């Protein structure tokens, strides 16, 4: 349980974010009366690169990451860092190849882009999948992680605490729109990073430095925890080749084709701001390994030396063995390693992660429901009605997410549960987007069939794994399953593109790259701010980091 001062800091922070979100959103809309819908959903196309980069990071990093990455650091060491650092390569792909089409086409949503490149059926299916994934992946999992932390710290019911925080978040998100979301996300990112840095420093000091941690790992014969690229026979079921084959399938969907993430890019002032903001996020993604995962690894070594008491999260198994519920390791570090006052700051950081993730997802859901569903059946609808529909949709999505919490709580690892679901959703979407912008021959009929058949395959495999746990399918790591499903989708789309040849429209003719050199044709800003320079620096930096922690 935390002290009154920590509770005060937490409540003050929540109310401050609420007031800032409301003020920014209402003020922006009052200044943008000419196009209320664009102002609400896309911030009036006014976002600059710092806000875009910070908002992308904030929408990605939620309480799920703070809690689950610390858990994975405790359980498997730096292994889950692959998801953070591989994201940088995917963001380079987004900046170089996807952003120009998104900005040039002037779309409000990614399903809208898919219609311009393919047809209406593809748009409808992506809208449906994107809304469902936003509810499950971006909202419900964040609620679950936030609820676990708040329950441990405050002793309140998991559902009560989550409902209160999410209702407050929904108020400024629904009223203020994307501008309110991006500004509050930028603030929350700073708070989140400061809080994570504090707990990392506290763990480091308690452990007496890096060398002391390495000595403990050597003594426990666990130096493999310092390695991110594991051998083929590693017990983690995530050896190095699964990272390089499976992650791009997940990452391209998540960073390049998921509305909740890419909406920050769609609200960019221009192409350069969109590209540089995306790459800025890529550089920030270096941090999570050190400030989110590393504390969990420090916690493991502290526990081995008796400097961290695990009794509150330890139970006795059927055979008398001790079972540690590592979901609560982050909360344990906060309460045992930090003084009162700083605990309140860490709680504020955790709340930042929860609120930013939920606000971003709600805004994206409202945008897709308004533009991709309601406006389709009600052409010529006024801005006020469009915004109202979006607000109602966000409220319904929030309520629906709450009902999913008991189901998702059955996963032993929150982070693995999250990626397990993504692995079965992503392959067909990644396929149609990649082939759509890189291959002239990708046809609309083939894209539609790939989305339908690929999604059905993913759902079928997922259900089989959950019902029949002893089949050969259940032995395939989820990263490799994503790769196999992606390969199947490639075969499906290429085959049907040959059977049903493409018939380009005037618009779709401009939405694929004629040559690999085309993405680099735009000069960009001069100096270090040039997107080509930044892409090269980011790529080299990540290659060096992977080599050092191989």
UniProtKB/TrEMBL annotation:
Stored PROSITE patterns: NA_SOLUT_SYMP_3 (PS50283)
Main location, first listed in the record: membrane
Topology of this chain in the membrane: Multi-pass membrane protein
InterPro entries given in the database record: Na/Glc_symporter_sf (IPR038377), Na/solute_symporter (IPR001734)
Annotated TM spans: 6-26, 47-71, 83-103, 124-150, 156-175, 187-207, 238-256, 276-300, 329-351, 386-409, 421-439, 451-469, 481-502, 531-549
Keywords, comma-separated and alphabetical: Membrane, Transmembrane, Transmembrane helix
Keyword Transmembrane helix part of the UniProt annotation: yes
Highest taxon of source: Bacteria
Annotated compartments: Membrane
Family matches, as Pfam families: SSF
Record-linked NCBIfam families: sss
The protein's name: Sodium:solute symporter
Species name: Pedobacter ureilyticus
């Amino acid at each position: 349980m935390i002290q009154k001062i920590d509770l005060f800091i937490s409540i003050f922070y929540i109310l401050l974010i609420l007031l800032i979100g409301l003020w920014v959103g209402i003020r922006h809309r009052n200044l943008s009366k000419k196009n209320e819908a664009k102002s609400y959903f896309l911030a009036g196309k006014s976002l600059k690169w710092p806000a875009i980069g910070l908002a992308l990071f904030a929408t990605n990093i939620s309480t799920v990451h703070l809690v689950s990455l610390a858990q994975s650091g405790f359980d498997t060491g730096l292994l889950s860092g692959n998801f953070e650092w591989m994201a940088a390569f995917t963001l380079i792909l987004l900046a170089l190849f996807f952003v120009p089409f998104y900005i040039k086409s002037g779309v409000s949503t990614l399903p809208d882009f898919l219609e311009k490149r393919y047809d209406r059926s593809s748009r409808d299916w992506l809208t449906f999948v994107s809304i469902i994934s936003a509810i499950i992946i971006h909202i419900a999992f964040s609620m679950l992680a936030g609820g676990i932390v708040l329950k441990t710290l405050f002793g309140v019911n998991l559902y009560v605490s989550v409902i209160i925080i999410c209702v407050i978040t929904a108020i400024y998100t629904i009223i203020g729109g994307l501008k309110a979301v991006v500004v509050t996300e930028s603030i929350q990112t700073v708070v989140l990073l400061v809080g994570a840095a504090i707990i990392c420093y506290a763990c480091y000091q308690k452990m007496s430095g890096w060398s002391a941690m390495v000595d403990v790992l050597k003594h426990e014969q666990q130096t493999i925890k310092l390695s991110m690229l594991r051998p083929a026979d590693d017990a983690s079921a995530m050896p190095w080749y699964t990272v390089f084959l499976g992650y791009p399938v997940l990452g391209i969907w998540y960073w390049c084709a998921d509305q909740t993430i890419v909406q920050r890019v769609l609200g960019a002032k221009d192409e350069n701001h969109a590209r540089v903001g995306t790459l800025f996020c890529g550089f920030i993604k270096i941090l999570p390994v050190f400030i989110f995962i590393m504390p969990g690894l420090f916690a493991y070594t502290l526990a081995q030396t008796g400097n961290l008491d695990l009794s509150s999260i330890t139970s006795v198994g059927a055979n008398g063995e001790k079972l540690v519920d590592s979901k609560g390791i982050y909360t344990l570090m906060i309460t045992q390693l930090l003084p009162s006052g700083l605990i309140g700051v860490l709680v504020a950081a955790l709340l930042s992660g929860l609120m930013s993730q939920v606000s971003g997802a709600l805004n994206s859901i409202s945008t897709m429901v308004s533009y991709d569903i309601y406006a389709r059946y009600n052409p010529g609808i006024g801005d006020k009605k469009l915004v109202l529909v979006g607000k109602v949709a966000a409220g319904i999505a929030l309520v629906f997410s709450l009902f999913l919490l008991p189901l998702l709580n059955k996963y032993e690892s929150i982070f693995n549960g999250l990626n397990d679901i993504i692995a079965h959703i992503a392959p067909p979407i990644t396929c149609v987007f990649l082939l759509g912008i890189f291959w002239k021959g990708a046809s609309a009929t083939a894209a539609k069939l790939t989305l339908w058949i690929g999604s059905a395959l993913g759902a079928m495999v997922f259900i089989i794994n959950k019902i029949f746990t002893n089949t050969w399918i259940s032995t395939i790591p989820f990263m490799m399953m994503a790769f196999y499903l992606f390969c199947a989708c490639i075969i499906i789309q290429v085959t049907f593109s040959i059977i049903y040849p493409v018939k380009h429209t005037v618009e779709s003719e401009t939405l694929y790259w004629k040559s690999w050199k085309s993405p680099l044709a735009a000069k960009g800003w001069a100096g270090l701010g040039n997107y080509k320079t930044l892409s090269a620096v980011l790529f080299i930096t990540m290659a060096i980091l992977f080599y050092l922690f191989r």
